[in-house]
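pinned: reference chain
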Amino acid sequence: MNFKKTALSLLAAGLLASAPAAMATTFKMALGDAAGGTQWELGQKFKAVFEQRTAGKHSVDLFPNGQLGDEQNTVNNAALGTLDFSVLAINNVTPFSPTVGVLTLPYVIQSADDAKKLTQGEIGQELTENTIRDAGVRIVGWAYSGFRVLTNSKQPVTSLADLKGMVIRVPKNEIMIATYQSWGINPTPMAWSETFTALQQRVVDGQDNPYITVSAMKFNEVQKYITNIRYIFSLEPLIVSESVFQEQKPEIQQAILDAGREATAHSFAYLQATEEQIKKDLAAKGMEISDPANGEQEWIAKATGTVWPQFYDSIGGKDKLDKVLKALGR
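pinned: its structure tokens
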């Protein structure tokens, strides 16, 4: 018996048998928030559907809590092709693709249905094309987190006068900074990864985020008061590196798109099913919840009158905003 030939034959057979496993791909998905929040829910659904559509030959690993870098860094890394997927707050995409900022102008989105209509319709498709062009990333899904409510550790806030003297953390986003400035305070831009500690140490008094994020991040441990403002509806796009997307076979590209659509639908349903209970849970943990006086009219008038005109150019012109408002029947 030719043992050398037999050994080579066995080796070749082993390599062939293991070829499908070698061809399998594990994609990395960055999440800025902790496990248990909207980003995690979207990522988990995407993972399940994508792995099912690819018959388990491809998988997705989720890395919550900014393990793969802060949210803006993940856009850079995805553009470079060194990161596959990221779920992040829309305001962290805006610096790379400014037209997306139309969805973060204060009080443009006034309900969850508005958010769904814009992201899943013609406006959303146009913004996806813009992010591919501008940032080298493709939006393949959306997480819906609800309105960003204001939390603080000092006192109930029902009017702009109550905000006076407070130090409020905001993301490093020009539109959000300008909104608070229109309300008469100078906010403190701060990375998301630093926010909990800053609240805990009273470096800042408050911040704004949706109820589900307040709960997932355990802000009830360092904040006492919630104000139900609704200046921004929090959208968190799921992006894929365009270079990574284009490297995939057509059937894998389709699996990514299908998983993104199913995860988007799941996220909307999840918000509808859980937000009210989360409010009750936070109240039971000692948080005091207030509504702005007079239907928030003072907040709305100052923000829309001052902030919208400042950003017409960056979003692509006033006509872009008019198109969005028309799509919403306003």
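why pinned: Confidence is low (pLDDT under 50) at residues 1-22. The two ends are 85 Å apart (CA to CA).
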